[in-house]
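Ticket reopened. Same input as before:
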Amino acid sequence: MAPKRGPQSEPSSASSSSSVPGTPIQPSLTFPAPPARLGSLSRPRAPASGLAQTVSVGLSRAGTGLASGPGSSLGAAGGLKFKPKLVARRPKEERDASAPAPSSAPAVSSSTPQSTRGRGRGRGRGSGPRGGGGPGRGGRIEIASTAAGPFADPSFGDPRGLRGPSFEKRPPQSEKDVAGQLKFTMSGMSINGKGTGESDSDDEAIREGVERIDIAKVAKVGGANGIDMGHYFPIRDSAARDHVEDGVALAEDIIDERAVSAREAEEFVGVFGDDGVDDHDLERKLFFFQFAPVLPSFESSRASVKLEQGVKQEPGVKSEPVAEEESPLTSLKRRAKVPSDSGSALSSVPGQDGLVGQLYIRKSGRVSIEWGGVEMEVAKGADTEFLQDVVVLDHADEHKATLLGQIARKVVVTPNIDILFKESDESE
Amino acid sequence: MEASSAPFVIKEEDGDVMKDISLVADVGVSTSDGVAKNDPSENIKPTVDDADDDDPIVASFPIYLSSRLAPNLHIFQYPVRPNTRPYTRSRGEPVLDVRVKPQSGLIQVDVPINTTQFYDHEKGEKWGAVDRQTLGGVRTTSDGYMIGIFKNGELHLTPVKGTCQLRPSFTYVDKDAQTEKEIARSFRQDPTRPTEIRAVQMTVKSSDDSAPRYSGALAARKRAEDEEYVEMHWYDKDTEDAWDLADHLLSASREPLIPATTRDEYIELIRDKI
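Engineering reply: fixed in the latest deploy. New output:
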C-alpha cells in the first residue's frame, strides 16, 4: 500500500510539508486525501482507504456480480451440463441458498463432512438434488470444497487405516509435537532425547503411540554421526600387516612415523583427511581422483610386458615380474578364493601396472604429484552430500557386481602449467 | 617390502617430531634399478629437483598405476541418497538387484523401500512395486577419473571405466499405465492377430532402412531398447568377493613405468584437448 501511494501522495505532502518538514506524522496527514481520489479506481484492486472497508466492498460487489450474472443467464442451462467441472458454479447456487440459512451451513459441514461431499457430487449431476443440499451449503462453499478434495478426506473420513489416526492425533498435539521433535534432534538423536523433557511425558507417550516418532528415528539413522567413515573400504590389512605378523615389524614402524609427519602437513590433511590423517584412517578410504583428461603416457616397461604375458598364462603372473611383497598377498588370496577367481576377465586385460610418479608433501603443506615427469597440483575436491559407491561390474564373465565401498573424498589433480611451460622453454 | 619403503627413509635428528622428521625423497624413483631404467629414456627428468629450498619435501608417497580392475571399475552416484546412508547390508538396506545393458550402458539398481514409514500401501499394491525402488541411469565414460587408495605408504590408482548417476526411475508407473492401456485396447479390438503379423513384417523392413536414419539420442534410445538387461549378482561390501576384488586395486607391479610423453608433447596434448 505504502509504495503505491507514495508517488501520488507526494505532491500533496510536499505542499503540506513546507510547513512541517520531514516529520513522520506527515504521511498520516496526507493519508485521507489519496483514498478519496483513488477510491473509485482502487476499489477493485482493494488497497485504498481502510482495508476492511475495501475488502468488504470488493467482496460484496464481486459477489453480486457473480451471483447476478451467471445465476440468471447460465444457471438453468449451463449449470446442468458442466457442474462437476467448475467450482465457480457452486458459489452461485449457494448464494441462492445462502440467504435462507447461513448459520446452519457450518454446523452441517463440520459435523458430517462426508455428507457434504456427497452433496457436491450430487449437485454436479443433476439440478434436482440441489434443493436438498441447499440449506446446508450457505456461504461455506469453500470449506466444503476443500473438504471434498481428494486429500482432505482421509483425515476426517473413515477408511485408509493407518493414515487416519495419525492425522487425527496431530492437530491437537501439533505444536507440542514439533517442539518435541526439535528437542529430539537437538538433544542429539539418541534415545536420551526422549527423556529430556520430563514434563512432556504426555507428549512422549503420544508420540510413542504414533508412527510419527519414526521421523525422529529416521533423522537419527541418517544423522550427522551416522557415517562410519572408518569403514568405507574393505581392503585387507594387507601384505605389510601379514609381514608384521610374521615377525617383520619394520614396515609398521615406518608407517607410523610417516603418518606422524604427514599429520603435520595441514594441507595434506585438508586434502586427504577429516581431522588428522592417521595411517589407519588414510588406508581405509577410497579416494576419487580427478586428473586432467590427458596424462603423460608410459611405455610398457619390460616388467609390465612380462606381466601382461604372464596374466594371459595366468599362473605365470606372480612369478618374476611382480615385486616380492606381492606374492604372499596373492598366494594368500588364492588360498582364500577359488583359483578361477583371478583368471576372469578382470585380470586378463592388458594394462599398465607400475610406478608412475610420486605424491609429495612439502613443508608448507603444499601437496603435489609428479606424474611421468610432469608436476601437478593437488587440491581437495568439492565435498558431496550424496552417496557415491565404487562398484566393480563384470558383465562379461560372471555377471558380478561388487561393491567395494563408498567414496570418502574427492581429490583434484591439475597439471602445473607454469612449471610445464617454464621447463619446456628451458629445454628449447 | 624394503624396496617400497625406500622412499621413506627417515631422518630423525631430534626428538621433536614436528620439524625434525623429514622424509628424504629420492627424486621420482624409488628403486635403485628403477633409476637405471628411467635414465635412458631421457624424455622427462623429474621436475621435483628444482624444489625450492625454503619449501622442502617433507614426505612422499610413490604412486602406482593399477590396471587390473580398470575395465570394470565404476562409480555409482546416487544423487538423491545422502552419503550418510549407504546401501549396504550392514546398514540394513543392501542393493537387491543390479541389471546392466553392457552395450548401451544402461544400469538399473533395485534398492529396498522401508515400508513401515511414509509408505502408501495402497499405491504400493497398485504399482506392484511393494518393497523396492528402482534407480536407473546411463553409464558415461570420462577420462582422468581414478580411484586411489593408500596402502603401506603407497598410493595406488586405478582408472575408472565409467560413472553412472542412479536416479529414481518410475518404470512401475509406466508399466501400470501401459498395462492399463493394453487392457483397454484389448477390450476395444478383439481380433488383433492379423495386425500383429503385419507389425512383424514392418519391423523387418524398417530395421534395414531406417537404422542409419536414427542419430544421436534416438539411436541411443533404439540401441538401449534393443538390448536386453543382463542380471548381475550383487556382492555387498563386506563379502569375501569384495575383499578379494579390493585387493586388485593394488598395483600388480612395483616396477617403474617409462614415460612415453615428453613435456612438449604433453603441452601439445593439452592444447589439442582444449
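Chain B is about 35% helix and 25% strand. The mean pLDDT of chain B is 75. Please confirm and we'll close it.
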